[in-house]
Design a protein that fits this description.
By secondary structure, the protein is an alpha/beta fold. 32% of the residues lie in helices and 22% in strands. It is built from eight helices and nine strands. Strands 1, 2, 3, 4, 5, 6, 7, 8 and 9 form a nine-stranded mixed beta sheet that branches. The model has no long low-confidence stretch (mean pLDDT 90).
Length: 233
C-alpha cells in the first residue's frame, strides 16, 4: 500500500526488531516503507534494521516527539504508522484495522489501537493495559488521550501540528490536545491490537510518573486545575 509509511524508534532492541518484522510480513497490507529512528543503540539494532531492509535514521539528543518528527519528515506516505518496535501485532489484520477509520471521516487526525499484556507482563502493567485499552472502539472529540506506541496519523495533519520537540514524554497527548482544539477527531480502534510487555505506566515506575505529571501540569493537560481553589483542607 503505497500511501502507508511506518516509523518506529529503537534503543538496543535488535531482538524486538526481528519479531516486529516477522509480524509485519504476515499483515494483509504491505507498507511502502519502514523507517527506524535509532537512539544510539550499542547492540546490533542498526545492523539488524539494515539487514531487514528498513531505512535507518539516528538521533543523538533523544526526545520522543523529536525522534518521531525526524522519521516522519522523511516519509513518503499519506498515512504514518507510529509504533513501538516492541509492540507486536496480535493478528494479520492489525495494520488494516488501524488504518481503516481514517477512511470514515476526513476529520479523524489519528487512530490509536488496543494494547494487550504479554505473558511475562508485570501484574501492574497487565491491570493498566486492560483498564485503559477497552474492548469497544470509540470516537474522541474532546478526550485528549492518544498513544503512539500503536497508532497512525495523517501526514497532512502532522505538517500542521508536529510532535513536541522537547517534551520528555506524553508527546502523544500533547499532540492530541492541539489537534482536537482545531476541530479534528481521534479514533480508538479496539480491533487494531498489539501485545505490549511493559504497558503505559512501566510497572509503576515512580520517577517516570513524576515526569509525566510534571509535563501534564506544564502543558495544562490537567483540565481540573482551574477549579482546584474551591477545595480547601
Amino acid at each position: 500500500m503505497n500511501n502507508v509509511s511506518i516509523v518506529t524508534r529503537t534503543k538496543n532492541e535488535s531482538e524486538d526488531l526481528l519479531s516486529f518484522a516477522a509480524a509485519l510480513n504476515r499483515q494483509t497490507i504491505t507498507p511502502s516503507e519502514i523507517i527506524v529512528v535509532d537512539n544510539n543503540s550499542d547492540d546490533n539494532s542498526v545492523k539488524v534494521a539494515h539487514e531487514l531492509g528498513f531505512r535507518v535514521l539516528s538521533t543523538n539528543s533523544y526526545f520522543p516527539g523529536n525522534a518521531l518528527n525526524i522519521g516522519i519528515e522523511q516519509t513518503i506516505g499519506d498515512f504514518i504508522v507510529l509504533v513501538s518496535v516492541h509492540c507486536i501485532p496480535t493478528n494479520s489484520r492489525w495494520l488494516e484495522n488501524l488504518i481503516e477509520p481514517l477512511f470514515m471521516d476526513e476529520l479523524i487526525a489519528g487512530v490509536y489501537g488496543r494494547q494487550l499484556p504479554c505473558e511475562d507482563s508485570k501484574p501492574n502493567d497487565s491491570r493498566d493495559l486492560y483498564s485503559i485499552f477497552g474492548s469497544e472502539s470509540k470516537l474522541q472529540t474532546s478526550e485528549i488521550f492518544f498513544h503512539n506506541a500503536n497508532s497512525v496519523i495523517r501526514k497532512s495533519v502532522w505538517e500542521e501540528f508536529q510532535f513536541s520537540k522537547n517534551a520528555t514524554n506524553i508527546e502523544d497527548r500533547i499532540w492530541a490536545k492541539e489537534v482536537l482544539a482545531r476541530g479534528y477527531k481521534i479514533f480508538y480502534s479496539s480491533k487494531a491490537s498489539v501485545f505490549h510487555s511493559h504497558g503505559v505506566n512501566h510497572n509503576g515506575n515512580e520517577s517516570r510518573a513524576e515526569s509525566v505529571v510534571k509535563v501534564m501540569k506544564d502543558r495544562n493537560l490537567y483540565e481540573h486545575e482551574k477549579d482546584k481553589d474551591w477545595y480547601k483542607r
